[in-house]
Write a structure and sequence with these properties.
globular; mainly alpha; Leucine-rich Repeat Variant
């Protein structure tokens, strides 16, 4: 009796071993059209995933920020040739990428800036950290300048800093009235960079009217900064005074 039971068990195992592949073959045969369509879509899905991901972008931004900090070029906050070259390189690299991916990277930097302002006390350490953020923003700015209006109108100081970074890198996009308002509504780090954006606008002010508008914006900005209670931000004052001295009085 025991031998018979073992025989039945062996037969059942054999039938199971045979039946499972047969069942799988049957399923594949029945759904062969659907499977063929699905398999044909795999390369397209992989291509979409490739375009939607930029695993090296954050590393590239860190590399640029590290190089600027190491060279000391970021101390002044000015746009440098290295930043311009990095922005051009990233613009080419992201040309075929879904813009939402690059926007997501910029939005993370906006949040990082807002977090730094809240979590770090005012001082050199916070300024260095925030400068690192705007250096990264500049590397993305030319690729995303078409989204400028959305960042200008944001309630986030980090997003407004991103808008300023765009104007610094693409002076043709600068909104003088909006930049002028930064000096009465923002914190010193932001209006310091608004002053740098005005300074860069001078490079494209090639008509008397443009130079006149820039001079008026810089004069009003300087008057606003000097009217603050207590010592005005020295760096901002120097930038605006240098800008005004370079503009002809027409």
């Amino acid at each position: 009796m025991e031998a018979f039971a073992k025989l039945l068990t062996s037969i059942a195992a054999l039938v199971g071993a045979i039946a499972w592949p047969a069942t799988l073959f049957f399923i594949v045969y029945i759904f062969r059209v659907e499977l063929r369509v699905a398999l044909n879509k795999v390369p397209l899905l992989l291509e979409r995933l490739r375009k939607a991901s930029l695993p090296g972008l954050s590393l590239e931004l860190d590399r640029v920020a590290d190089a600027e900090a190491e060279s000391g070029a970021s101390k002044s906050g000015n746009v440098t040739p290295r930043q311009i070259e990095a922005a051009a390189r990233i613009s080419v690299q992201t040309r075929e990428v879904d813009p939402q991916t690059v926007l997501g990277e910029l939005d993370r930097l906006c949040l990082e800036y807002d977090s730094l302002r809240r979590s770090l006390p005012s001082g050199a350490e916070r300024t260095r950290a925030m400068t690192r953020v705007i250096v990264k923003m500049r590397s993305l700015a030319p690729s995303l300048v078409s989204y400028l209006d959305a960042y200008k109108g944001s309630g986030s100081a980090g997003s407004r800093l991103a808008a300023i970074a765009m104007m610094q890198m693409v002076p043709q996009s600068a909104d003088l009235d909006w930049l002028k308002d930064r000096f009465s509504t923002e914190h010193p780090f932001v209006f310091y960079h608004a002053a740098l954006a005005l300074q860069n606008v001078a490079n494209i002010s090639d008509t008397p009217e443009k130079r006149k508008n820039l001079r008026e914006a810089a004069q009003q900005a300087l008057a606003t900064v000097k009217a603050f209670a207590g010592p005005p931000d020295r760096g901002t004052v120097e930038i605006l005074e240098t800008l005004l001295s370079s503009l002809p009085k027409e």
